[in-house]
Design brief:
The protein contains 14 helices and 12 strands. The protein is an alpha+beta fold. It has 2 domains: 141 residues, no CATH class; 198 residues, Serine Threonine Protein Phosphatase 5, Tetratricopeptide repeat (Alpha Horseshoe). Helix 6 runs parallel beside helix 8, helix 11 packs antiparallel against helix 12 and helix 12 runs parallel beside helix 14.
């Protein structure tokens, strides 16, 4: 295992918590009307509505995707009337904005039963392909009465519209119980509301990977893959590198809570020819660096050559176990050559720390092979590199890590 108290910094733009979808149902006689509002970024990510990748879903793009959107809506909205599935047809599709300017997709659907509705069941699991925990806040209006219901995978709203005498008696009893419960709960409303607001605020502050952010990144990547310039290849590498880092931070912070979003990121980047994969041994996502390698092949002395090569060296370092003697010596040589070519490179302190760790690992391997001469040679090289880091980059995280490594490589 490689360890050197290495420090990585990652800047993450603030993200908003994933929006909750809304659904309003009106049941009247034989007809069921539904108006759905789904976060547009999430729907766009899933169904790829923005075909020209300009960051906006135009009226023309929405119109061309009408069949796709309709199929998605009717697949994830299931209505059953008196035990029989009720087909729902799309009446209109549009885009609107909430009070906070967040864009949403609005779809209206309707279904008609051959006879008066006696009992209804509604199931909805929108956007669970992106997040299994996604919720749809539903309001069901029946005969002047509105029921609130939170739809999610596995949740079913059920209601009988034409109660028999026994059901009526039960409803009266239930109403009395509800009144009592409301009287008791009234005293607790304020603290519960405050607690709910605090929890919601905490959730918003803790968002790392979001559907909107992933959607933007994937569109940027797709645009870059369509371009052929060397700069586009380098920028594609930066986007892929940033996405892999974001995925790692998501897993480190929340485990696999956003598994669906992570899986979607992997499948969509694979479609684009961008190689991001999970390294089980290191327990991290890594980008394969192909775009950086392509850039270096096209422009070995280009303006981004040093940055691209540094990325490739860092990927090799972090995925190495440091137990292959020949590979570790070769990696150390590549780092030395880089530092010779780019002595003032901005990340030189980090790369020198990688080099010191390489030397330490080579020393250990020679020691394990009972080659004391080479073990001592590379131990001294590691210590010399650590002293150089502490001298050239005082007050940095790399200098602090180098001092720790220096202590560990004492005879």
């Amino acid at each position: 295992m490689r360890s050197a108290c290495l420090v990585l910094s990652l800047a993450i733009a603030p993200a908003q918590a994933p929006g909750v979808s809304d659904a309003q149902f009106t049941i009247d006689g034989r007809t069921v009307h539904a108006v759905l509002r789904l976060p547009l970024d999430a729907v766009d990510l899933l169904l790829r509505l923005d075909r020209d990748l300009d960051g906006q879903v135009s009226a023309a793009e929405l119109d061309s995707a009408r069949a796709t959107v309709g199929t998605y809506v009717t697949k994830h909205l299931q209505v059953t009337v008196d035990g029989t599935p009720l087909p729902m047809s799309i009446e209109r599709i549009g885009v609107g904005r909430d009070a906070d300017a967040s864009a949403y997709l609005e779809a209206a659907a309707a279904g008609q039963s051959p006879s008066r509705i006696g009992a209804i069941a509604i199931r909805s699991d929108f956007l669970t392909e992106i997040s299994a925990a996604h919720r749809t806040h539903g309001q069901i209006n029946i005969g002047g009465r509105a029921d609130d219901f939170m739809f999610h995978a596995g949740a079913i709203y059920e209601r009988r519209l034409a109660p028999n005498r026994q059901t009526s008696s039960l409803l009266v009893l239930a109403a009395l119980l509800v009144i009592g419960a409301l009287w008791w709960a009234r005293r607790r409303t304020v603290p519960l509301t405050v607690a709910a607001l605090l929890i919601a605020s905490a959730a918003r502050a803790d968002v790392i990977m979001s559907a909107a952010g992933l959607n933007t990144t994937l569109k940027t990547m797709e645009r870059l893959t369509r371009e052929s310039s060397g700069n586009s290849k380098f920028q594609l590498g930066l986007e892929a590198d940033a996405l892999a880092s974001l995925m790692n931070q998501e897993v480190e912070s929340h485990g696999m809570q956003e598994r669906e979003l992570l899986d979607l990121a992997l499948s969509r980047t694979k479609e684009l020819g961008v190689g991001i994969a999970y390294n089980r041994e290191k327990k991290k996502f890594f980008y394969d660096g192909a775009a950086f390698a392509d850039y270096l092949e096209d422009a070995p002395r280009g303006s981004h050559a040093a940055d691209a090569e540094f990325k490739l060296l860092s990927y090799q370092f972090y995925q190495s176990t440091g137990t292959d003697l020949a590979a570790t010596i070769a990696a150390a040589g590549a780092k030395k050559r880089f530092l010779t070519r780019y002595p003032t490179f901005g990340e030189a302190a980090e790369l020198r720390l990688y080099l010191a760790v390489d030397y330490r690992d080579v020393s250990r391997q020679y020691r394990d092979a009972n080659d004391s001469a080479n073990a001592e040679k590379y131990r001294l090289l590691a210590r010399a590199e650590c002293r150089r880091i502490a001298r050239l980059y005082p007050g940095t995280d790399q200098a602090a890590a180098a001092r720790q490594l220096l202590q560990r490589t004492n005879p």
